[in-house]
């Protein structure tokens, strides 16, 4: 050892007594206990199969969040039913649901998207085509003197005879008639395209609505997009013969893109407009039916 370094002499340690030996022994045990504790806390090896051999997959936090959202969506119908159970909420919720249905139907409608047409062999026999009416099957239209009154946003308003409507190109089509009561039937219809007639009278086809009033007191309104659809007819024939009284003679609407209650019969007056009267949107619609009535 170099001379310039003086080693400090430590006094000799006293022999530990019995208690000191116990403490020393405990101190020596600490590392062993700590090692044992760390061994228990170490993560177990992830299993890849369950007790029955089924695969076990680890679910990430992002997936758990998505699963929670799906579970919440499943509860929405239950919550809606609960809301409908509250009388004060029932009517507002129903109205909002109908407005949403109208909005979605309008967005999905395509003016050039045609309803399905069928072969003659698919058409049901005339005798099996149901008569359907809201009040009377025959309101007693005077077929000889009948005219269609045209009003509203048109250049040539007035009264039009059936022969004037029939003078326009005739269209025949085999299409499905769908009733909101749950039945449907394929029939054969003939008439003038509503779009051809509206253009012939100088109607403003940028207007929003066509309103219809009927001899039997029924009334209806239709969005202009549907009126201008190429399959929308002012129908005066079924199965190659003039409409009979039970099916709406002498003139009715025939729209294979709409439910049956929109297809007014016994037409008396039509009106092109941009504003619907609040209390006269449609006979059944004013009692809670969907206004758009699309298929």
Describe the structure.
By secondary structure, this protein is an alpha+beta fold. 29% of the residues lie in helices and 19% in strands. It contains 6 helices and 10 strands, in the order H-H-H-E-E-H-E-E-H-E-E-H-E-E-E-E. A 5-stranded mixed beta sheet has the order 2-1-10-5-6. Strands 3, 4, 7, 8 and 9 form a 5-stranded antiparallel beta sheet that branches. The protein is globular.
Q: Overall mean pLDDT score?
A: 78
Report the end-to-end length measured between terminal Cα atoms. Answer: 106 Å
Q: What's the total count of β strands?
A: 10
Largest sheet: 5 strands, mixed
Shape: globular
Strand order of the largest sheet: 2-1-10-5-6
The CATH class assignment of the largest domain is Alpha Beta
What's the helical proportion of residues? 25-40%
Report the CATH superfamily of the largest domain.
Oxidoreductase, molybdopterin-binding domain
Number of helices: 6
Radius of gyration: 40 Å
Secondary structure class reads alpha+beta
Number of domains: 2
The H-and-E topology, N to C, reads as HHHEEHEEHEEHEEEE
């Amino acid at each position: 050892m170099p001379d310039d370094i003086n080693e400090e002499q430590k006094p000799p340690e006293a022999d530990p007594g019995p208690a000191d030996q116990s403490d020393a022994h405990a101190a020596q045990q600490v590392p062993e206990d700590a090692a044992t504790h760390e061994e228990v806390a170490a993560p177990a090896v992830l299993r890849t199969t369950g007790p029955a051999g089924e695969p076990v997959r680890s679910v990430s936090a992002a997936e758990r969040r998505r699963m929670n959202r799906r579970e919440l969506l499943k509860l929405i119908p239950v919550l809606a039913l609960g809301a409908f159970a509250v009388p004060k909420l029932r009517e507002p919720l129903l109205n909002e649901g109908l407005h949403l249905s109208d909005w979605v139907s309008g967005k999905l409608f395509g003016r050039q998207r045609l309803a399905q047409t069928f072969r003659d062999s698919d058409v049901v026999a005339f005798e099996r085509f149901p008569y359907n009416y809201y009040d009377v099957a025959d309101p007693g239209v005077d077929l000889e003197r009948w005219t269609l009154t045209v009003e509203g946003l048109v250049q040539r308003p007035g009264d039009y005879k059936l022969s004037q409507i029939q003078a326009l190109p005739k269209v025949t089509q085999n299409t499905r008639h769908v009733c909101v009561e749950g039945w449907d039937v394929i029939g054969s219809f003939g008439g003038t395209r509503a779009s051809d007639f509206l253009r012939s009278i100088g109607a403003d086809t940028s207007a929003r609505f066509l309103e219809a009033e009927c001899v039997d007191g029924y009334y209806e309104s239709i969005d202009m997009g549907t009126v201008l659809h190429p399959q929308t007819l002012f129908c005066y024939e079924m199965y190659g013969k003039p409409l009979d009284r039970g099916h709406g003679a002498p003139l009715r609407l025939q729209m294979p893109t709409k439910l049956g209650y929109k297809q007014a019969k016994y037409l008396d007056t039509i009106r092109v407009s941009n504003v619907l009267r609040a209390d006269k949107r449609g006979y059944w619609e004013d009692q809670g039916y969907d206004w758009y009535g699309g298929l």
